[in-house]
């Protein structure tokens, strides 16, 4: 079965057009400066009027022709690969036209080969080398420049802008692309960590942070606390008002809980109607104070819902992160079995409840 072409769907076609636009600027700079170097070498060896016209087209018009040709193509990736091969053929053509002048020839072949690698990898590089050889063969057949490999001072000076400015342009474009990719990576990481409904972190990221905080506590005896919070009578909300109303409750709770926690806290949706808060560097008393603050805040908003809280501090006797979470869960279900809308702290042999405190 033939592989699916990269332009087979609209998304890839849009990316292909983005590639075409990104290459346009470097192509304008590279061919413009490269043509100046070629022109200096042609002045050394002499050439026909049509060769000068071809050089003007290659250096000044071809970058814009290539842009519009590729943008109008239904397969912009393939069209841009075609364009860089044409660039290579032109570059090969100018080598014999310049009398095989070493400095501009090496510069042009090197820069074109780098472009081919950057656009299409080793395969396109190999095809580009073939295109350069074909272009050189055509140039050798139709021109009679002879053999003049030594560059004059004028040719050397004409090559310097190409040697300096074009690599800097490619470096700048590469840096901008790296910045963009880094930003997209951060955005993707943010999206994968977040729960879409509540807007807070998801369970997978929360579990990861709990493991990290547990390790820090083990190594450096750093305090930390966990809170598990469960919406009271959430099933009744779904049964009476529907799951859409239940989703609205979760969404609103996510917003209101974000307003209560500190920036250093990790707030996550732990389950359907269950939230979790990791408090790095915090004591049990600070976790209790946060639970109380959330209870007060919930009484002041809409919809009116209550939460039950289970709290567990990170203590030396806890063997694993899972055991730490289980302690908070045990404290939570002590409250759920009682009056609800309350908090409890895990302690041996049973959890110490708010009422007992």
The DSSP helix count reads 10
Give the CA-based shape: elongated
Which parts are unreliable, with pLDDT below 50 for 5 consecutive residues or more?
1-5
The major pleated sheet works out as: 6 strands, mixed
Cα radius of gyration in angstroms: 34 Å
- Which strand order do you get reading across the main beta sheet? 2-3-1-4-5-6
Average of the residue pLDDT scores: 89
Q: Please bin the fraction of helical residues.
A: 55-70%
Task: Please count the beta strands (DSSP E, at least 2 residues each).
Answer: 6
Report on this model:
The protein has 357 residues and is an alpha+beta fold. It folds into two domains: 182 residues, no CATH class; 151 residues, Reverse transcriptase/Diguanylate cyclase domain (Alpha-Beta Plaits, 2-Layer Sandwich), CATH 3.30.70. The protein is 67% helix and 9% strand. It has ten helices and six strands, in the order ααααααβααββαβαββ. It has a six-stranded mixed sheet with strand order 2-3-1-4-5-6, sandwiched between helices. A hairpin with a 4-residue loop joins β2 and β3. α1 runs antiparallel to α2 and α1 crosses α4. The longest helix is centred in the middle third of the chain and has 41 residues. The radius of gyration is 34 Å and the shape is elongated. The termini are far apart. The N terminus is likely disordered.
């Amino acid at each position: 079965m033939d592989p699916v072409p990269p332009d087979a769907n609209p998304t890839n076609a849009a990316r292909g057009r983005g590639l075409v636009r990104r290459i346009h600027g470097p192509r304008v700079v590279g061919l413009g400066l490269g043509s100046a170097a070629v022109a200096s070498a042609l002045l050394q060896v002499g050439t026909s009027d049509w060769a000068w016209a071809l050089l003007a087209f290659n250096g000044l018009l071809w970058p814009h022709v290539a842009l519009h040709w590729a943008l109008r193509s239904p397969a912009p990736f393939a069209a841009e690969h075609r364009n860089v091969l044409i660039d290579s053929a032109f570059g090969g053509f100018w080598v014999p036209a310049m009398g095989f002048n070493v400095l501009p020839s090496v510069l042009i072949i090197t820069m074109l080969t780098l472009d081919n690698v950057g656009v299409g990898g080793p395969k396109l590089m190999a095809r580009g080398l073939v295109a350069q050889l074909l272009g050189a063969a055509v140039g050798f057949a139709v021109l009679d420049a002879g053999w003049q490999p030594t560059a004059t001072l004028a040719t050397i000076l004409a090559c310097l802008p190409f040697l300096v400015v074009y690599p800097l342009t490619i470096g700048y474009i590469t840096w901008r692309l790296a910045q963009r990719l880094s930003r997209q990576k951060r955005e993707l990481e943010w999206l994968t960590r977040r729960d879409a409904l509540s807007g807070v972190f998801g369970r997978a990221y929360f579990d990861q942070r709990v493991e990290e905080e547990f390790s820090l506590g083990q190594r450096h005896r750093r305090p930390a606390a966990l809170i598990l919070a469960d919406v009271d009578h959430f099933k009744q909300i779904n049964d009476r008002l529907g799951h859409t109303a239940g989703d609205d409750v979760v969404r609103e709770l996510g917003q209101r809980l974000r307003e209560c926690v500190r920036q250093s806290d990790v707030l996550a949706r732990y389950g359907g109607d269950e939230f979790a808060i990791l408090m790095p560097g915090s004591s049990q008393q600070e976790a209790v104070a946060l639970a109380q603050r959330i209870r007060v805040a919930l009484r002041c908003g809409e919809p009116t819902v209550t939460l039950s809280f289970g709290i567990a501090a990170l203590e030396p006797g806890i063997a694993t992160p899972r055991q730490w979470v289980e302690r908070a869960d045990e404290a939570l279900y002590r409250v759920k079995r009682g009056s609800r809308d309350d908090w409890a702290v895990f302690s041996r042999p049973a959890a110490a409840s708010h009422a007992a405190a």
